[in-house]
Amino acid sequence: MSKQETNFEFLGRFDKRVAQLAKQAEEYVHTDPDSCMFKLRLMVETMAKKLTNLQMRGDISQDLGAMLGALERAGVVSRRQADGMHAIRRDGNAAVHGSPTPVPTAMRRLKDAYRISGWFCKRIKKGAKVQLDSFVPPEPPTPLNKETEALHGKIDALEESIEQRRLETRESLLMFGPQENVDEVTRRITEELKALDNVAAAAGEPMIDADFVALVMAMDLEQIEEDPRHGGDSRQARREAEQQLESIKNHLAEREEAFMAERTYLLEQREPT
Question: pTM (2 decimals)?
Fold first, then answer.
């Protein structure tokens, strides 16, 4: 891809601000990956605010994580798109708070942003014709030496590993559906609440906020406890669910810190190009 070309040319027809942020992120991906993540996070925040204004009613928190959670619960943002937006939010936040962004991480998030952008255009303009070509990774300004290539390979392998663990944890935590059979959920609830911390420890951080998971679980528990066949105090059910997930949330935060430390360590091994 030449310096004049961009994967995000199509975006300008739908939202000039989002298009500008995407192009800037693309320009920074090799030379300043932290700035790339700043731009991508702001891009996602701009998308979320526009979707909120267009398709949500009532007051919605302007915190990006809360906005994405509200949009996903309302069905405005699909699970797949929410996962990508949360990934950009998470790595953008890490960059803001001083955790260095490797080029492979920024490139992954840029590719996520490309996919999300196509979906976003169709969401804000019904009937929009958006056919995405394959994402073309921007080329570095100068060829990478063997040491840098090897380092990028290690970081990319680490990123792939942590993404798989996060995905597995999300699958494990989202164990209740809207049409669950009460008897079946009741049978599972005791087993799964006890096992949840072990699942989280083995799998890593979920791609959605733990606070949202706690709320979902509390609502499910309330439905079970309030069912006339069981009877019980739904407030106590909520407290128990929130206590279970608060401990998991703390554990996941520790895992995320360990991941960031490992990524930073790899970056510190970089040889001068």
Answer: 0.68
